[in-house]
Amino acid sequence: MNITQLMHSRARIVPSLPTASFSVKAGFWRWQRLLPLLLVLALLLPLGVLLLYALQFDLERWTHMWNTFLPRALGNTLTLIVGVGVGTGLLGTGFAWLLTAYEFPGRAWFDRLMLLPLAIPGFIMGFVYVTIFEYAGPVQTALRGWFGWQRGDYWFPNIASPAGLILVLTLVLFPYVYMLARTAFREQLASSIEAARVMGYNRLHTFFRLVLPLAYPQIAAGIILAMLEAMTDYGTVSYFSYPTLSERIVVLWNTEFDPGTATQLALLMMVVALCLITLARRVRGHARFYQHGGQGRHMSRQALRGWARTGAVLACLTLFGASFVLPVSQLLLWAVGELQKPTVGILGESIITYSTNSVVLAGISALIVVFLSLLIVYGLRATAVHRNRGNRRLARMVTLGYAMPGAVVAAGVLVVVNPIDAAVTDFATAFLGWVSPAYLLTGTVIALIYAYVVRFMAVGFNSTDASLEKISPSMEGAARTMGAGTWRILRQIHAPLVSTGLATGVILVFVDVMKELPATLLLRPFGMDTLALRTYFLSVEGWHRSAAIPALMILIIGLIPVFILMRVGDNPIGKHRHTPE
Amino acid sequence: MQRFCTYLMIMVVLAVLSLTPALAQSDDAGVLNVYSSRHYGEMEAPFVAFTEATGIDVRVSAGSPQDLLGRLRADIQRGNRSIADVFLAIDAGVLSLAAEEGLLMPIESEVLNANVDESFRDPEGRWFGLSVRTRTAVYNPANVTEEELAQLNDYSDLANPTWQGRLCMRPASHIYTISLFSSLLYHLGEEEAAAVTQGIVSNVTRYINSDTSLIQAVAAGECDLTLVNHYYMGRLANGSPEDQAVFNSVAIRWMNQDSNGVFFNVNGAGIVKDAANYDNAVKFLEYMSAVENQCGSSTCFPGSNYELPTNPEAELNETVISFGEFVLDLDYPLWEYGAYQQAAVTMLEDAGFGFTEN
Ligand SMILES: [Fe+2]
To answer: Above 90 in pLDDT, residue B310?
Structure first.
C-alpha cells in the first residue's frame, strides 16, 4: 500500500451509517419527498419541452450543416474548451498551491486578489484586450510609430485569434479553479504535510503525490465549471467572430429561423458536456470522502527565498496585472474620456436604473437558486441518504441548464410560460378588468428569473451538494438517534456546516447573472435593460468609451460579493463550533 | 429556519413586485411601446421631440432585428397581443418576414403614403421606411493604388485576387452581411453569386463584428478594404479628434455606380398586429416621416444618424452630401429582401464565410 492509498483510506475512515436506523414521522416525510421532486420537474420543464422541437429531424439540414460549418464549429468548440480547461487548470491549481503552501511577500494579498477577475464578464475582457492589442490598437500603433514598421515587417501575437480568445476566457475563468483548489488544499494541507514528513517528502512531492490526488474532485469541478462557461459563452465568441456550437445555435435560431435544428445542436452540445462531466466524475468516484473532525489547525507555510521568492512575486503580479489591473485601468481611462463629454447627464440617470435592475435580478436569482438547491439536496438526502440512486440522478439533472446556451434555456422558458400567461391574461381581462396586453410572467421579471434559475441551478446545486457531502451521515445518524427533529438537524448541524458552501453558491450565481446576456436579451420585460446588455450593445457598436461606464459598474457591483467570497474562503469549515471532535 | 425562509420568500416577492412596471403601464393611453433595433444614443433626440410634440410617452425595448422578430413571434404565437405597438427594424428583409408571418397589420394612412416614397415602403402598407442607409466600400488610399481603385467598381470586384489578405469583413451572422449578399444573389444569380462569395472568403484576412472597428482597421492599415454602412463614416467625421483622424485616413468608394447602384437598406417600422396603442403608433409613423422630421440635422430621424430621408421632399444631411453623389440600387426591391436572405445565409455557409482559416 503506498501513501496515496493510505490517504484515501484515511479519508474514508468515517463509514456511512445504514439508513435503516432512521425513524421519522410519516406525514412530514411525504411532502419532503414530494417537494424536491416537484421542484426538480419544474426546473427541467423548460429543457424538456425543447425535446418537442428536437423531434422534427431534418436530415437534409443536417447534411448541409455537416458539409458546411458543423465540423469547424465543433472543432472550434473543442479547441476552446480544451484550451480553457488546460489554461484554467494550470493557472488555478498552480497559483492555489503557490499561495497555500509557500510564504512570500504579498502572499496574503495575492491570495485574495486572485478572485477579483470573477467579476469581469468575458466579453468585456475580450473587447478590452482586442482593442489594446489588435493591429489598430495603441500598443501596435506605438510600436509601428517608434520603429517605422509597416504591415508585415514585424511579428506580433494576434489577439483576434483562437489563442487570444482562449487567453481572454482563461483570464476570467481561472478563479473558479483557483477558488475550489485553494479550499481543497487548505483542508488537506495540514494532514498531508504531517504524512509527508513521516515519508520524508519535500513540498513538491507532497503536492504531486498527496495533495493533488486528494484535491482532484474539487479541481476537476472547477475546471468543468470553466469549460462549461466557455462552451456556452455567446458574447465573447461572437465578439471574436469565432463560430462555436453555441454561437451557431443562436444563429440557427434567430437568423435561420430553425428552432428544431438549433435545439438538436444544443442537445449535441449537452452530450459533449455530459461526456466531460461523466469522465470527471468517474475519476472522482474513487475519492469520496467526508470532512473529518479536527482540521481547524493552523498549518505552516514554507518560506521562499532568493530567486524563488522573486519568481513567485513576479508570477502573481503578472497574473493579477493581466487579469485585473490592465482591463480595469483601460476601462477607467475610457470612462474618464466619456465623462468629459457634455451628454453625460442622461447617462447618469439611466446608469442607476440599469444598476438597480442588474442587482435586483442577480440577487433574487441567487437567493432562489440556493434556496431551491438546499430544498432539493437536503430533501433527497434526508429521505434516501445515497440509497435511492434514481432520485439522485434526477436531482443532478437540474444542473443540465448550465450546459445549455442561455438563448436555448430562454426559448424553453418561453414555451412553458406563454400558455400560462395567455390563460392568466384571458381570465384577468374577463373578470378583473385588466387591459390586454399585460402579462403576469413575461411582462414582469418572473419569466427571466425562472430562466436564470434553470440556467445557473448547477452553480448553487453543486456548492450545496458538495458542502452537504462533507457532512458524514454518521453525524446525522447520531443526531437522529438522540431524537433530534429534521428542522433541528438542518438548523443546528447542517446550516453552520454548509453556510460556506451556500454563501459561495449565492455569490457565484449573483456574479453569473450580472454577466448574463442571451437569456436577458430574450426575456427581459419591455423596456428593461441591464448593465451587461447595455455594455454589450455599446461595445458591439465599437463605442468603447461609452461602454466603459456600464462595464465598470458591473465590476464595482460584482466586486462586493467577490470580496465577501474572499472572507468566506478564509473560514475553513473545521473552525465552526458545531464540528464534532 | 422556517421563519427565516418565510422572510426570504416575502423579500423575494417584494423585490419582484418592485421590478414590475409592465402590468401597470399597458392601460395608459398616452403611451407607445416600440421594439427597436436602431442603435442606442442616436434615436433619443427624435423620440424626445415626438413626446414633446404629442405628449405620448415612448418606451423602447432594444435588440438586434432578428432577436426582436423572435420575440415578436413568441408574443403573437401565444395567441394574444404583443406588448409592443411598433416594430422598428433596421432591415427590410426582417420587416418583410414579419409582415408575411402576419405579425404586422396593414396601416391605413394617406399621410404616410404621401410622405414615404414608393421605393421605401411595403406595397401592401404593412411597413414604411423611415431612413435609408447604404453599405459600400471604404479603403485606405495610402495602400490602394490608382489602378486597383479603377478595378474596384462592383461588389463582385471584392473577389478579385488582388485583395488577397487585404480584406476585412463583418461576419455572416450579422444581418448587414446577409442582406448585402442577398443582393448579389438577386443580381448575379445563384452560380455567379456563389463564385463571388467564395472569392471574397478567400480574400478576407479578418472578420470583425463592428463597422466602426472595420473602418479603424482599414485606417491603421491592418486591411486595405472593407464594406460598411455609410453612416459610420458620418459618425467618425463628426466625432472626437481621434475619430476624425481615422476618418481622414480612409476614403469612401461608392459601389455598383456603373451598374445597378449602391446597395441600401431602410430603417423602417410597422405596427404590430392588434397593437393596443394603434392610433399612437400611426401618429408616430406619420410624425417620423413628415418632411420637417426627415431633415438632415441631428433632431430629425435620418439626420440623427447621418442617414438619407425616405420622404422625397426632405433635405439631405450635410455630411452625407460631402461624401459625393451616388445612385441607389432600386432594381432590387426592399420587399424582396426577406425572400433572398435565407438563400444568402446558405450561400455564405457553403462558402465558409466567417470562419478564419488558421
Ligand atoms: Fe449599424
So the answer is: yes
SS3 A181: helix
The answer to whether A278 faces chain B, any CB pair under 8 Å, is no
A253 shares contact with chain B (CB less than 8 Å)? yes
Distance from CA of B258 to the nearest CA of A (A): 32
Chains A and B form CB pairs within 8 A to the count of 184
Q: What angle do CA A231, A235, A236 make, to 5 degrees?
A: 70
Domain housing A29: 24-48+341-530
Q: Give phi and psi for A537, each to the nearest 5.
A: -55, -45
B16/A364 touch (CB, cutoff 8 Å), yes or no: yes
Q: What total of structural domains would you count in chain A?
A: 1
CA-CA-CA-CA torsion sign (A407, A411, A417, A418): positive
Dist. CA A231–CA B90, nearest whole Å: 30
Contact A559, A116 (CB under 8 A): yes
Q: Which residues of B touch A526 (CB under 8 A)?
A: 22, 33, 59, 61, 83-84
DSSP letters for A284-348: HTT----PPS---PPPPPEEP-HHHHHHHHHHHHHHHIIIIIHHHHHHHHHHHHHHTSTTHHHHH
Picking from A256, A367, A437, the nearest residue to B12 by CB comes out as A367
pLDDT band at B45 (very low <50, low <70, confident <90, very high): confident
- Domain B134-263+337-350, CATH: 3.40.190.10
* Interacting residues of A340 by C-beta distance below 8 A, sequence separation 6+: none
d(CA A184, CA A96) in angstroms, rounded, equals 9
In a domain, A385, yes or no: yes
Average pLDDT, whole number, for chain B? 88
In 3D space, the residue among B171, B131, B193 whose CA is nearest the CA of residue B334 turns out to be B131
Q: Say if residue A96's pLDDT is above 70.
A: yes
Is residue A421 within 8 A of residue B80, CB to CB? The reply is: yes
* A75 inside domain: no
β-pairing, B204-207 vs B225-229, is unpaired
The answer to whether residues B252 and B228 touch, using CB atoms and an 8 Å cutoff, is no
Exposed/middle/buried for B334, CB within 10 Å: 0-12, 13-18, 19+? buried
The whole-number pLDDT of residue B145 equals 94
Select the highest-mean-pLDDT range: A20-34, A404-418, B83-97: B83-97
Q: Cell numbers at residue B166, please? A: 487585404
Judge whether residue A27 has pLDDT over 60: no
Angle between helix A406-431 and B65-77 (nearest 10):
40
The alpha carbon of B76 and the centre of ligand 1 are apart by a number of angstroms equal to 27
Fold of B29-132+265-317: D-Maltodextrin-Binding Protein; domain 2 (3.40.190)
Residues belonging to chain A: 581
Distance of CA A48 to the CA centre of its chain: 23
| Model confidence pLDDT, tens digit, residues A200-232 | 777 777 777 777 887 888 888 889 889 999 999
- Domain(s) of CATH 3.40.190.10: residues in chain B: 29-132+265-317, 134-263+337-350
Contact by Cβ (8 Å): A505, A370:
yes
Residue A365 lies in a domain: yes
Burial of B325 (0-12, 13-18, 19+ CB in 10 A): exposed
Q: Are strands B86-89 and B251-253 parallel, antiparallel or unpaired?
A: unpaired
Q: How many Cβ atoms are within 10 Å of B5's Cβ, its own excluded?
A: 12
Over 80: is that where the pLDDT of A242 sits? yes
CA A349-A353-A356 angle, to 5 degrees, is 140
**For position A427, which CATH number holds?**
1.10.3720.10
Q: Does the residue A270 lie in any domain?
A: no
The predicted model gives B297-317 an average pLDDT of: 90
Interface predicted TM-score of the whole assembly (ipTM), two decimals: 0.84
B12 — pLDDT class (breaks 50, 70, 90): low
